[in-house]
Amino acid sequence: MKIPGAKDSIDEATFEQILEMDDDEDEREFSKSIVYDFFTQAESTFEKMDSNLEKKDLKTLSELGHFLKGSSATLGLSKVKDSCEKIQNYGQKKDEKGEKDITEDEGLKKLETTIKQAKQEFHDVEKVLRKFYNDEQ
Amino acid sequence: MDAPFSVDSDRSRVHHPQSSAGDGPNTIPSHDSNNLVLDVFRYTPIPTFVLDASLHVTHVSDSYCSVSGVPNRKQLLGAHVDKLYAKVTVPSNAVVHQGIRAAQDTAAPSILEESLNDRIWTLRTVPVFRDGTIQCFLMEVQDTTVAHQRQLELEERLYANETFKILVDTVRDYAIFMLDPQGNVATWNAGAQAFKGYSKSDIIGKHFSSFYSQEDRDNDKPGRELRDALRDGRCEDEGANVVITPLYKDDVHLGFSKVTRDLSERKKAESKLIAAYEESSKLKSEFLANMSHEIRTPMHGMLSALTLLLDTQLNPEQLELARVIEESGDVLLHVINDILDYSKLASGSFSISRDIISAPEVILSVFRAHQRVSKSGVSFETLIDPRLPIAAEGDSFRFRQIVENLISNASKFTEQGSIRIHATLQHEDENTYTVLTEVIDTGIGVPLIASGSLFTPFTQFDNSATKRYKGTGLGLSICKSLAELMGGDIGFHPNPEGKGSIFWFTAKLAKLKRAEYLNQLEIVQRKLDNLSCPPSPTPAFDKLRLLADGRRVLLAEDNAINRKVMLKMLAGLGFNHVDIATDGNEAVSMATKTTPPYDVILMDINMPVLDGVQATKAIRGAGLDVPIVAMTANALKGQAESYIAKGMTGYIAKPVDRKLLVDLLLSCLERED
């Protein structure tokens, strides 16, 4: 099962596994509900990220990054997952790979750009998925 | 040329024109005085002559006559100084003039040296004034060769001493002490001062045993060292880097030298080296981890596609080919993991697991895989000892790895003939079976020269540029370590039939307790049946579905989406009783309060309130030994072991792969039974 336009942004094997759980390949009720749940979860997480970015609460930002990383990994949304991992690391005042220490200011700066990037990646993959589920707005 | 003095030729009597008058009543009578003066000049043992103000010779001592080689002093008396050099050997005209000039200029005695006829001569010119007018010059000429020599030697010795002192003092890496014969510190160098951190007054005169520990002093180590040094001429304490040497001068014992190497520089260099080594070793591990990750990701993609392919309707031939791909893919994954294993084996941090193993099953399965892809001219045979245990305790995966390695080596190097696998029960005692597995090929064999290094890492006996046989050169060395970890050994000898080699290894497998044994027997029997009949598409999957019925599962996961996916996946595997905990605290209270207890717990690692590791600790603390499977996106192999060390039963990476989950749950539930 190929998802048009999903190259790079979706890990096929993982998403396949979700699709396999659908009882009916035409309805795709289960996977669709999961994916749409994710849309909601992502939107609300991004909102929380924005407000915590304003409050400069790095610890919470890291936790939010980890939280969204978990669900995006489960769905195989690789790009969003990678960015969330970076958010998790920056929030712990580490570099993107979580190896070296960075300052709080550096962390905040990087968080700002990475959250923006994660949102963009999310919106891109959202479009692809909505198209896949024949739900173009 | 009138001399101011009239000279009496025979008795050297000098009549001074002014000396007789005006000397006053207190002076010695002038006659005696004159005689005495004349005697002084004539008989002084210091070779002397006197020049008047016009530089004519007025007095000459006998001693001068003898050093200057003039037999008769009359030849010299009255002569002008410039006529003198023609008659005498010393001093030279130039030096005489130089002396006179210096004496005139400074109005003080001048001393000059010259070297004539291999001797050193010293000319002392003493100007004699009266009322500010020069009266005469007293010229003393002495052979100072010996004194001069002595002076030179002294200077040389002083210089040598000075240099030596500087040398000893500036050596900073060595603490040098001079001890008196009793062992008291007589002196020490700056290095010792810096090294020991004492000031001079702290230590000079103290006994050197104060450098030793109380324990050493109690054992009289310092005294023993001095005695040893006296007896052997030297005493070395390698641990402390100390050398004690007795010192003698003209056979008199002066004391001891005690030289200690300052190890701080060397230690610094050593620790730098160690840091560099650790850094490179860390880089190597990271590189290996990254590489294996890069390779594993597409491999997993390929294998999961294959899993899907196997689920479709395939004809028997396609099915068999697909299964060959699957097995080879698994093996390839194992190879990647082996590279990681190797670094662990090398560092000694590797351990083997204690699962249930069926040696015949493992051997047959590897055999089957190779038989399918064997070269056309090679026949495969097995001979399995019926006494081999069908179930025992051991590391199935590692046992398989050795068999796999030996068989694949055999087929790599065998173009024609046969590959035979013999497995026999070599020994059996109360607790263990010792299984001997031999792989006998008719391949190219092992050249004698390579036989010693066969089991050395990264070596292959064919290292030529046009290497015909591929491989990392790690296989046999890993096998050797694995066999040893299993309490066995590994080796090879040439095939007595004339061509090829026999590689063998032994492994000790522990006997199972009775109940376990019967249970395993049934499972293994089924597996063996599967091996002989055409295999069902996914035996593990079917098996789990059977086992899952009625099982209770606790899923601890904070992310709703992951929960939903896991629930669906578990339902698909036949688990209908799955409870949910959304944080670690909830997981602990549910796990400890639910009766009967859960059959398995799936535990996310990063959860709010209480994380998975802490929750596991609490559950274990409550005395529950339910299998707990860690789930996390941190996918390094070492981490899995750290979770297991923290009380977890198994580990699965996120995103959760269904096939891996099946295997893991199967092993958890089987263990529980």
Outline the biggest β-sheet of chain A.
Answer: none
The CATH superfamily of chain A turns out to be HPT domain
| Quaternary organization | heterodimer
Tell me which protein chains meet in the greatest interface and how many residues each side has.
A-B, 26 and 24 residues
CATH topology of the largest domain in chain B: Heat Shock Protein 90
Q: What is the second-level CATH architecture of chain A? A: Up-down Bundle
Kindly name the structural category of chain B.
alpha+beta
Give the percentage of residues in beta strands of chain A: under 5%
Annotation, overall tally of beta strands of chain A = 0
Number of spatially distinct domains of chain B: 4
Which descriptors would you attach to this protein?
heterodimer; A: 137 residues; mainly alpha; Four Helix Bundle (Hemerythrin (Met), subunit A); B: 673 residues; alpha+beta; Beta-Lactamase; Heat Shock Protein 90; 4 domains; five-stranded antiparallel beta sheet; 24 strands; elongated; disordered N terminus; AHP1-5/YPD1 (chain A)
Folded structure, characterized:
The complex is a heterodimer of chains A (137) and B (673). With 137 residues, chain A is mainly alpha-helical. Chain A has one domain: Four Helix Bundle (Hemerythrin (Met), subunit A) (Up-down Bundle), CATH 1.20.120.160. Chain A has five helices and no strands. Chain A has helices at 12-20, 29-55, 58-75, 78-91, 104-132. Chain A is elongated, with a radius of gyration of 16 Å. The mean pLDDT of chain A is 88. Chain B has 21 helices and 24 strands. Mean pLDDT of chain B is 80; it is low at 1-24, 463-468 and 531-537. Chain B is of the alpha+beta class and 673 residues long. Chain B is elongated, with a radius of gyration of 53 Å.
